[in-house]
Amino acid sequence: MRLKNFLVALCAAPILAVAAPNEQDTGAALRALDWHKGPATEQVVGKATLKTADAGTLFLDESNSTQFLKITGNIPEPGVNIVFSKSGDWWAGFSFNPIGYVKDDEKIDADDLLKKLKNADDAANEERKRLGIAPIFTEGWYTPPHYDPQTKRLEWGLKLNAEGQTVLNYTIRLLGRTGVMSATLVSSPETLDKDVISFRKALEGFEYNSGEGYSEFKQGDHVAEFGLAALVVGGIGFI
Known about the structure:
Blueprint: H1 23-31, E1 36-37, E2 40-44, E3 48-52, E4 57-60, H2 62-71, E5 80-85, E6 90-97, H3 110-119, H4 121-130, E7 136-148, E8 153-162, E9 165-175, E10 180-187, H5 192-203, E11 206-208, H6 228-233
Antiparallel strand pairs: 1-4, 2-3, 3-11, 4-5, 5-6, 6-10, 7-8, 8-9, 9-10
């Protein structure tokens, strides 16, 4: 594992935390976690399954995912599953927000969303300072937000600066019947392009549980009060 890649998006806007400085101790603690090796069918936060293709794809249950976040210097969050690709050397965090059915007919203004993300930096960094975690700053889009109405996936890539180092988060929101699954890829500028391809390939094994799919919406289901733009700026508390 490349420890420089132990970064994760947390809370409202994309927030990053770097790993602990003692890489030897960190590596040993990570190896001690209960990693599930593929191929297997894993439960993702109780709302979906992920079929891991081979032994090179590792998965952590919620308890071990919490430990992973602590070990790597991140704010632990409940309801998270971590997936790690040994072949691609990337990792991703999965979480679900039960906000209801999100209508996907909203147009996305990438420039306006970027301004909102940058404006959120100060408040987010105040929280990071309180927790003793280094600040980060939004630099710009790596890939502007774009939505695929066929797959019901909203994707974007964001460049951030953490202690002088440019790091990248690539996020995919998978719309469901009762909420939205967040899958955030953590990568480095040098490998992001190939890691995104590998990440998307891994997501081919993702499937909502019966009754949770976007197409299974029924009259009377709860409809979210926000649209696609809110899923990008993170005002509804995704990791």
